[in-house]
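Re: beginner question about structure tokens

> Can someone show what the tokenized structure looks like for a real chain? I only ever see the sequence side.

Sure, here's an example I had lying around. Input first:
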Amino acid sequence: MNLKIIDRTRLILDIFASRAKTSKVELQISLAQMNYFLPRLNQKGIWLDNQSGGIGTRGPGERKLEYDRRYLRDKISQFKKDLEKVKMRRKIQRSQRKNDRIQTIALVGYTNSGKSTLLNQLTNLLMENNQAPVYADDKLFATLDPTTRRIVLKTEKEVLITDTVGFINKLPHQLVASFRSTLEEISEATCLLHIIDASNPDHIYQEKVVFDTLKELGACEVPVIKVYNKIDLVHSNYINLLKDKENALFISAKNGSGFDELLDKIDKVLYTQKITGFVTINYNRPKLVDFVFSYAKILEKYYCGAEMKLKIQTNELTWNKIRKQLDNK
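And the corresponding structure tokens:
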């Protein structure tokens, strides 16, 4: 049998490549593929001929292996520059959201846990003018490009929800590096909804994979609401067992079960339980200063040397996030 033999990383890269639907995703996957291929070039290189010459090479005697390596390094350098432009555009978008004081939620979870289906259902439920649906399918990595939708809660508060790429155990480091600008949507979110496929017998293991990935991305400090999805596929006895053990919500993104509790929890976490207190911030922490001024109401402001003392009012979620950043000096 004439079959191609590939390793796990190559398989995941190939799956990602087959799911790419936008130029930004194609760019990120291409960079990951080239970083994968570069150390694996053999004497045949990528192509089958052994030598190459012409403009830009050392001459007709340059070995194809050397040419291939130089070609890949040049492409990698160019792709990194292009991704920096994408990163800057997303950074500007996030900055605009902060200036508008819009709360943002990122959907995270193991691949194929139902994140895209949930986003579509919430959008249809809460918006009169239905926005374009997010592509959702019962397969691995159906979502690669983060998609953001605007919803208005029943309390008339506006929220932005972003669907993100699904995680998998031992996600190839080439992909983590290439999708860094995409995954920043997670660490910059106000809150995370961790969507778990309750019908999957390995969901406990998958939860750990998601937690470890969030830790790797530096997003552990972002508040998380744990949501067990696909309860319509699980026996009620097991759901009751989970409810006894877990401080979580239980929904079916397919039929809308549990949405009222989910929306109430989102509203409570983002907008209720106001806290008033003082924080002292050094001027050498501009990111923290920007975060406080963006997400908290400034009641009083005092300047003292290299520090500023602020009396602020904000929700419990934001207050805890500020305190954690102050503790991690």
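Each token stands for a local structural state, so reading them left to right follows the chain. Residues 39 and 69 are 9 Å apart (CA to CA).
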